[in-house]
Each structure stands twice: as structure tokens, then as C-alpha cells.
Amino acid sequence: MRKSPVLIAAVVLLTLVIAAVGAAFLLSDKAADKAETMVSIGADEKTEATDAEEGEAGEAEAATDADDDAASYYEANSDVLDVVAAQDSADTMTEDEVLGELAGRGFEECVVTSEYTMDGEYAPATEVAGYSDAHPTYKAEYTTPSGELWVLFVFDGVVMANPTSYNFESTRDVQTVVSESESVVAYDSQTNTFYHVVPHESMLHVVQVDRIDAATLDALTVEELDRR
Quick one: where's region Disordered (predicted)? Predict the structure, then answer.
């Protein structure tokens, strides 16, 4: 039986909440222990950052702890290919660039939002307007003609897609994400850092396609994703 749109929307909200605290692997609540680990990284770092306001030494120590927490997590649960400070990345797109990129993939009708500045400061999700401002991450929602909901992510210039409807109904133990390579890009908001990683199969199921565009997502039916 198909889940109601209200329940699907709740899963989308859960995904965005997890991502907001630095959980860029987009794990489902079926792996609650793993998701809790992801969330706890952001929560612990916020506590440390608050305590560190007493002095520069405390701030430096908190920043080091945050780096260590994120690095340790990704090293334990993936093969880390690259670590890039968001402010130093040459691949982060401007609002105008990301709108053009997604439009060229058939997503011109999608509303694209951002939540972080290039300094890593969080703000409520805001629709991008095509300005020259850059953001480390972007999100958009796409619904296929058959009614399947997808969430698109652009991290460090890399486009990925989360089959939200499929993940809600899937019997897999971990969430599925579609990528154009075997790797995905994670964004740790506490350290404003990108992690290019190949996640372990116990943490995330990556479906690799040649190109993420509307035609590809339309063809990735529930049956096709199950076969992958």
C-alpha cells in the first residue's frame, strides 16, 4: 500500500533536519542508531562551540574537536577521497550557476533553496534568485510524472538525488542515494567542510547513473531501484 503524501512529507522534513546538523549522508530512520550518530556529531559540536565562547583558546579547541569528530565519523563509515574547506573550493556554484545547471538537466521548474552562507552560517531555507552569491549546498524537490518524489542536492558542485518516496517504502536497511559516481559529497556544517567519500554499504546504498536529469529519474521506478 502506498504511504500518504503527509507521511512522505514527514520523511522529507526528517531528511532536511538531519542534513541541517551536518548529516550529509541522508540516512533513513530505519537505521535509527546510525542516524542518531550522525545527528550527535552536530549536537556535540554546538555544545562545545557554546562553551568555547569564553576565550580564543576554547574556540580553537572546539574547532579541533569538531574537525576530529567529523573526520573520525567519515573515516569509520566510508573511504574518504578528499576533504575540502568550503571557502577554498573552486567548485562551489553561485545561485545563477546552480539554476542554469539544474535547468539544463530538465529541472527548470523546481524551486531551489539554500541554507548556508559560504562562511558556514545557517539561515532558514531561502529560495535562490539567480544572484552571484555562492552557497556550499543547494536543495530542490522534483516529482516525476508518476508521482514519485525526489530531493536533489548540489554539494560542492556535485549533483546527487535522494529518491524520497522510494526510501520511505523500501525494505532496504539503509537509504538509497543516486550519484553520477560511486562517491557522494557530504557537507559538515559545523566545520564548513566538504567530504568526498565512498560510503560503506552498511551506511548508504549508492546507485550510480551516467547523468542525473529528469529523464533518468523518471526512468528510475521502484522496480528499477530495487534491481539496482
Answer: 43-67
For residue 114, how far is the Cα from the chain centroid?
12
Handedness of CA 91, 89, 24, 14 (dihedral sign): negative
Domain boundaries, the chain: 5-227
pLDDT tens digit sequence for 63-96: 455 567 888 999 999 999 999 999 999 999 999 9
Closest CA to 7 of 36, 23, 29: 29
CB 108 within 8 A of CB 94: no
Do the bridges between strand 205-208 and strand 176-179 make them parallel or antiparallel, or are there none, so unpaired? parallel
Cell of 191: 566545520
Cβ count within 10 A of residue 4: 9
Say how far apart CA 147 and CA 3 lie, in whole Å: 12
Instruction: Determine the 3-state secondary structure of 177 from DSSP.
Output: strand
User: What is the distance between the alpha carbons of residues 53 and 79, in angstroms, rounded to a whole number?
Assistant: 34
Polymer length of the chain: 228
Each residue's pLDDT tens digit, 199-225? 999 999 999 999 999 999 999 999 999
One-letter amino acid identity for 160? M
Q: Which amino acid is at 196?
A: H
Torsion of CA 42, 186, 192, 118, to 10 degrees: -130
Side chain identity, residue 44: D
